[in-house]
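Progress note, project year one: complex with flavin-adenine dinucleotide.
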Amino acid sequence: MKTFTYSRATTVEDALAALGEPGTRLMAGGTEMVNWLKEGIEQPDRLVDITALPLTGIATDSGLRVGALTTMSELLDRTTVDYPVLAESLLRAASPQLRNMATVGGNLQQRTRCPYFRSDTKVPCNKREPGSGCSALAGDTSGQAIFGWSEHCVATHPSDLAVALAALDASIEVRGPRGERTIPATEFHLLPGDHPERHTALEPDELIVAVHVPAPAPRSHYLKVRERVSYEFAVVSAAAVVSLDGTVIDAARIALGGVAHRPWRLTAAESALRGVSVNDKEAIAQAIAESFVDAKPLADNGYKVTLAQRAAVRALMTAGGAR
Ligand SMILES: Cc1cc2nc3c(=O)[nH]c(=O)nc-3n(C[C@H](O)[C@H](O)[C@H](O)COP(=O)(O)OP(=O)(O)OC[C@H]3O[C@@H](n4cnc5c(N)ncnc54)[C@H](O)[C@@H]3O)c2cc1C
Ligand code: SF4
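Model obtained:
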């Protein structure tokens, strides 16, 4: 492991000043960063601990303003009643011990679980070393993307929370030397394109300050399909938020996880679902299929096309309390 200095920032201004120096990386709960240091994914000159910054706490007005250093456990406790989709995405992520350390900001900044990206021995990976190639494309594509991938990278993003936030139309407040700006949750994670080494829309000199979640969404649900029942990343997941007029769908928002390098909103399906009964499984499945006409499965992951559609149908019907 490369030698680096460690310091603690106590103000946002100090953290931003440190970030302005090349070779600086931030650490919050450390549940990702410590692994990256051991695996050589990150090799900073300076590591700045930001856990003393005043970015904790959850404020409530018409929605929620969640400080970036709020732990996943704290957010889970606060959202069980008003935002089931958020609480369920957190409850099904990692383990209680990890959730007690891991922060909301760090969760959004976590990196792909592509096994080639995480490999102990270095293998070609454009995300890790631009221009080196993509081992997944010529190897095992079973866990990779079916939407939005490029010939340079086919990885998916692993955050469960990000998928729930995308369905809720949440936004990420960030601060940098040029001031503050807000990034929609649906645009925070970047598709690989020609530059898979860029993971999110956060600039290297910016800090996540908070996450804004709009009005409560009591009719919502997060469904996570994984290879074992706990302590496992999603093969595919679906977050659904619905409002009903009786049993008829007035508006629906659905985001999928495990299918792209960003939460994948099913916008065509969302339009087609308006006016459909929440109990009509066949009509719901037909509407959701409209968002899969541009799915591009790879050699080993055609199963995700069917699995993701079924997950979306079930998440939506559960959110709407279908009989
Ligand atoms: C075994 C294991 C299982 C897991 N399972 C799941 C799962 O099922 N679902 C899931 O969603 N996640 C899962 N995770 C990921 C986990 O949620 C993340 O590791 C955690 O949320 C990262 O938060 P942290 O505070 O520890 O970040 P750190 O490790 O401290 O930092 C991670 C990255 O975020 C950056 N960062 C942190 N805070 C900020 C900020 N405020 N502004 C800008 N950058 C920031 C750091 O610079 C670093 O690049 C798992 C992790 C492990 C180790
Ligand atoms: S899919 Fe992306 S992360 Fe995985 S090996 Fe290819 S370039 Fe690397």
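The mean pLDDT is 97.
Residues 25-33, 68, 93-94, 98, 101-103, 105-107, 109-110, 158-161, 207-208, 233 surround flavin-adenine dinucleotide (ligand 1) (CB under 6 Å).
No further modelling is planned for this target in the current period.
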